[in-house]
Each structure stands twice: as C-alpha cells, then as structure tokens.
Design a protein that fits this description.
Blueprint lengths: L11 H11 L16 H13 L3 H14 L4 H16 L3 H14 L6 H13 L10 H16 L4 H30 L3 H14 L6 H15 L2 H14 L4 H12 L11 H10 L5
C-alpha cells in the first residue's frame, strides 16, 4: 500500500509479543473480555490476523477498535484498515461501506485520498471479462474520476488515471463485441450503431481503427458507398499504418471505390472535425 497510509508488517517476534500481550485476544475464549484490552492491542491483533490472510477475523478486530474506542486515533486507523482488509478479502461491498464511512467521518484526513481510491478499486477490481454487465464499469469510471478530481496531486490520482483509461477501453471492447455479433448475423443496422458509438464516444481507445473498418464492411454490405468510403478515408487519415486500413482499402478498391470523403453524413462530419483538430 503506497502513500501516507501504510500497513504495519509485524515480524514474527513482534507478533508473538502481541499475542502474549493480548492474551490471545479472542471473544470466544474464556479469558478477559475484549473490553479489557487497549485499542492498540486489539488493533495489533487485527494486523496479525490480516498478515495471516484471515480477512474476516481481521476486519472484526478492526471493527471492535471502532466500537470500543470510537473517538480515538486508533479508531480512525482501524476504519481505514477495515476498508483495506475487506478489499483484500474480495468483500467489495463491505470495503466500499467502510471507505465511505471514513470519508464521511474524516473528509480532511491525509488518508481520505486512499479511502476514495479504495472505494474506486472496489468497483474496478470487479471488472473482469468483457461479456459481463457494464454497470460496474460505469461505476468504476465515476469513482475513479472522483479520485482524479479531488486528489489530483496524489499517487492515487496517477494510478486512477491509468485505471480510468483501461476501464474506458473495456467499455469500447464491449461495444465492439456486440457489434461483431450483429455484423456476423448480417444485422448491419444494429452493428453500425455499435461501431458508431466507438467512433464517436470512445475514439481515444485502441478499438477505433477496427470500428472504422467494420463500418466499411457494414456500409458496403448495405450498398451505402458514401459512408463506406468516408470511413475508409478516416482510417487512411489517422490509422494508415494499421492492418485495418489495409483491409478496408482492399475492400473498397475491390468494388472500384477508394477511401474518400463523399456526401454529407455523420462520418464526413467526423472527418472535418478531425482535420480541424477537434476530434482526437
């Protein structure tokens, strides 16, 4: 964990001392009640459980620090540790809840940036394969933007920018996947809508060259040569060195056409905007 906040990594001897000092703090043991121990002792036991990857138990001890010593510095530290522990254990909703509670209680604290970053990660780390529902991706983008805008000079903002770009690319990949599905089944109008979304809304992603090529394919299949030629012209203008342009060029010239801005359609408007420097 980077930044102002750090997890204390206890050495074996220190851990042994913690266990001895806490009497092996365990609410199920027939020993002293948890209330008999100091905030630091309970916190240390939480770290011990965390280092053993017993995330449920660790979060429980950190939560007890909050409950028993709610106005102490240890309670504040324990709360951010609770958010971190839940995230490490893959309990993302619980991590979000703890991170948000930290932000509500300590909005000006030096660890607030990390709490906001954890909250964003709780969405981002659930984005896996392209085929999943994209609601989490949109939530991740919104949460990452919060980190970037609220804490622009932190290392968390720098990391959030990279993750934002990846999540944005993920959304474009989803549009491409659906567009290819429709194109393969010759549902050209539906395919064009998806590829158009990539060109207009996700033009900074790595999927734009393929989207333009697929538009050439779809428009040629519909006999809409003006749009096909214009999509090819955009490819030639901005992505001439890509295999997608080569494929589009072959498709067009095979029909006696060439990449060129023809007519007054949405693609010709995009082309004009590109030349004026307003598109990319």
């Amino acid at each position: 964990m980077a930044g102002a906040f750090r997890v204390k990594l206890a050495a074996p001897l220190v851990l042994a001392a913690v266990l001895a000092g806490c009497g092996g703090v365990d609410k199920s043991a027939n020993e002293l009640p948890l209330e008999s121990y100091t905030a630091e002792q309970i916190y240390d036991r939480g770290e011990f459980e965390l280092n053993r990857r017993r995330y449920d138990s660790a979060a429980e001890f950190f939560g007890e620090v909050e409950r028993l010593y709610p106005y102490s510095e240890w309670a504040k530290r324990a709360l951010i540790m609770t958010a971190f522990t839940y995230h490490k254990g893959g309990m993302y909703a619980e991590s979000r809840g703890a991170a948000q509670r930290f932000l509500d209680l300590y909005p000006a604290d030096e660890d607030a940036a990390y709490a906001q970053y954890l909250l964003a990660l709780s969405y981002y780390d659930q984005i896996d394969e392209v085929g999943r529902d994209q609601g989490l991706t949109y939530q991740a983008l919104q949460a990452l933007r919060e980190v970037i805008e609220r804490y622009p000079d932190t290392e968390y903002a720098r990391s959030a920018i990279l993750k934002f770009d990846l999540a944005f690319d993920h959304l474009a990949a989803k549009e491409m996947e659906v567009g290819r599905y429709y194109l393969k089944r010759q549902n050209y109008a539906a395919a064009i809508n998806r590829f158009r979304a990539v060109v207009e809304d996700f033009q900074t992603t790595s999927h734009t060259p393929e989207a333009l090529h697929r538009l050439v394919e779809a428009y040629l299949s519909l006999g809409l040569t003006d749009e096909a030629q214009t999509a090819g012209a955009i490819l030639g203008y901005n992505y001439q060195s890509t295999p997608w342009y080569d494929d589009s060029y072959k498709l067009l010239t095979g029909r006696g056409l060439k990449p060129s801005v023809v007519g007054n359609n949405w693609l010709s408007q995009v082309y004009r905007q590109m030349i004026q420097g307003k598109w990319l």
